[in-house]
Amino acid sequence: MGAPAPAPDAIYLDHNATTPVLPEVLEAMLPYLTSQFGNPSSEHALGRSAAQAVHTAREQVAAALSCHPDEVVFTSGGTESNNLAIRGAAAASSRRRVVSSTVEHPATERPLEHLRARGWTVTHVPVTPQGHVTAADVAAALGPDVALVTLMLAQNETGALMPVAQAAEAAHGVGALAHTDAAQAVGKVAITVDGLGVDLLSVAGHKCYAPKGVGALYVRRGTPLHPVLLGAGQEHGRRPGTENVAAVVGLGVALAMAQGRLPEEAVRLAGLRDELWAVLSTMVPGLVRFTPEQALPNTLTVGFPGVSGRDLLAATPEVAASTGSACHSGEETPSAVLLAMGVDPAVARGAVRLSLGHGTTVADVARAGRALVGAYRRAAVGRITA
Ligand SMILES: Cc1ncc(COP(=O)(O)O)c(C=O)c1O
């Protein structure tokens, strides 16, 4: 089932998987990988320079989220931020239930399984056929035994935006904390922690033009949270370990740049996304759109009828994109997210996620559309067996 490597000049439409590090971000990081290599905990000049860089990055991240710098905990990425939020909040609570959704990323689902194995009850709120959780369903799932509501802000496969602000308000109504996995939303849509009303919010650097292996967790002042890692006192003991100074600097610059681009970039990407949908839906009869109206501006997940999305992408080396399906021992398993939306497994099999980004141009979208339509037509006449 291995797809051939994409052509060197492939159009990159996989920004929900990861983004390139922007040149300005790399430039800001380089001194901290070379001459300014100090440990921020050291008291000499090199150490102070590194500590100052971490301090500046913390201010930049705080500005992007509209929070206080002391509410930002640097981590190794979205997975660690979610683990710290969920397991850390659970460890600090005497309650024993968590409310979440059926379409969370494994970086949320696995920590929830970990809690369940330790006697917690996990309530999964379903999604609508459009892929949204409803605020009413979250409210109905709540009770005085709930410690935490964890609901992603934007779904990574469909781009669907979730009613996090209403969920957080309802959570607070029963004395629970509210966490959102905002890995896919930060930098793509305007966010303020007070607008969302959450206590905890996860950021993943490599989804917003910073390097892989860095992220942040917003922790509202006064939120009870136990550390998951145990060690020295960095990040006020919430996340011990010598800071990844260069990557943290990159995250700060990347978020400052993203702030500067919003909302114009969101409008531009939504326009390109709509153009791509117009081309594909005109040329491919029966194309299904899985991305709803209320969604990230950069994401378009569609279902090509009668073919495997995986095989279609393998036949389209001009486009680097993803499917939601997994392949185990030669067997294709349709996306669990699409199945949770009630999509027929045969229809889900044709899913392709096209996620646009800062480097995506009008010409890219036109070329990608042509390439996908060409491959689909060849498939439809039997070159790819469904
Ligand atoms: C919604 C969501 N949460 C969490 C993660 C994990 O982030 P990271 O790769 O930084 O650990 C991802 C990455 O795919 C994601 O899409």
General description of the model:
- With 386 residues, this protein is an alpha/beta fold.
- The protein folds into two domains: 11-20 and 263-380, Aspartate Aminotransferase, domain 1, CATH 3.90.1150.10; 36-261, Type I PLP-dependent aspartate aminotransferase-like (Major domain) (Aspartate Aminotransferase, domain 2, 3-Layer(aba) Sandwich).
- It has helices spanning 23-29, 45-65, 78-91, 106-116, 135-141, 164-173, 193-196, 245-261, 264-283, 309-314, 336-340, 345-348, 362-380, and strands at 11-12, 72-75, 97-101, 121-125, 146-150, 177-181, 200-204, 215-219, 288-289, 299-303, 319-320, 326-328, 331-333, 351-355.
- The two termini are 14 Å apart.
- The model has no long low-confidence stretch (mean pLDDT 95).
Number of strands: 14
Described by strand count, sense and barrel closure, the largest sheet is:
7 strands, mixed
Number of helices: 13
- What's the rounded overall pLDDT mean? 95
Helix content: 25-40%
Along the chain, the helix and strand elements come as: EHHEHEHEHEHEHEEHHEEHEEEHHEH
